Amino acid sequence: MRIVLVGPPGAGKGTQAAYLAEKLSIPHISTGDLFRANISQGTPLGKQAQEYMRAGQLVPDEVTIGMAEDRMGHADAASGFLLDGFPRNLAQAEALDGYLRDNELTLDAVLDLEVPEAEVVKRIAGRRTCRNDSAHTFHVEYKKPKVEGVCDVCGGELYQREDDSEETVRDRLEVYHSQTEPIIDYYKAQGLVVTISALGKVSEVTQRAMDALAAKAA
C-alpha cells in the first residue's frame, strides 16, 4: 500500500506511522528522517537544506520534494510506503501526484488522524523532558514521574521545552490549519481520505487505522 498520514501536531503520527509501517511491511518515510539522513550523508539536497536551516530559513518545497522522491525510488519502497510529514502543503501534494503519475503508481489512502484541538494542547503542553537526556520524557497527566519534576531514569531535572509551551503549540496549530489541512480537502476530492479518531490507547488507534485501511482496500 501507498499511504499518506496526516494529522495535527500531537496526534501521534510518528508513533502510529512506525506501528502501521511494521504491520503493513512497508517503509516509514518521515520528513525528519529524510532531512537527517541527507544532511548526515552530505548529499547535494542535504547541503542545500543545511544552508537554509543555518540561515534560520524554511527549507524550500523543491528540496523537500527532491528528498522524498529520491527515497520513494529506493528498492524497499517498490511495493509501497507510508509517508509521514510529506506532503505538508498543496504544492507538495501536487508534486507527489506528479511523481506517482510519472512512475505509473497510485496512492491507496490518506489516513487522517483526528484529535480535538484542546486535546492537542493538553498532550504537548503537558510534556516534560529530562535536561540530562531528551529521550526521557514524561507527562503531567498521562505519564507522571514518581517524584514531581524529577526523571525516573536518571534523576535529572524535568522541564517544559520552549517548543512545548501552550503558545508555541497554538502557533503550530495555526500553521497546520493554514498549510496542511487544505491537502485533506484536496485528497477528499480524489476519494482517498480515511478519517479516524486518534483518541485512546496507542494500540486502539493502530487497530482502528488498520481496520479503516482494510475497509478502504476492500
UniProtKB/TrEMBL annotation:
It is an enzyme of class 2 (transferase). Pfam families: ADK, ADK_lid. ATP binds at G10, A11, G12, K13, G14, T15, R127, T137, F138, G200. AMP binds at T31, R36, Q57, L58, V59, G85, F86, P87, R88, Q92, R161, R172. Residues 127-163 form the Adenylate kinase active site lid domain. CDD domains: ADK (cd01428). InterPro entries: Adenyl_kin_sub, Adenylat/UMP-CMP_kin, Adenylat_kinase_CS, Adenylate_kinase_lid-dom, ADK_active_lid_dom_sf, P-loop_NTPase. PROSITE patterns: ADENYLATE_KINASE. Pathway: Purine metabolism; AMP biosynthesis via salvage pathway; AMP from ADP: step 1/1. Keywords: ATP-binding, Cytoplasm, Kinase, Nucleotide biosynthesis, Nucleotide-binding, Transferase. The keyword Kinase applies. Catalyzes the reversible transfer of the terminal phosphate group between ATP and AMP. Plays an important role in cellular energy homeostasis and in adenine nucleotide metabolism. This is Adenylate kinase. It comes from Streptomyces rugosispiralis. The lineage of its organism: Bacteria, Bacillati, Actinomycetota, Actinomycetes, Kitasatosporales.
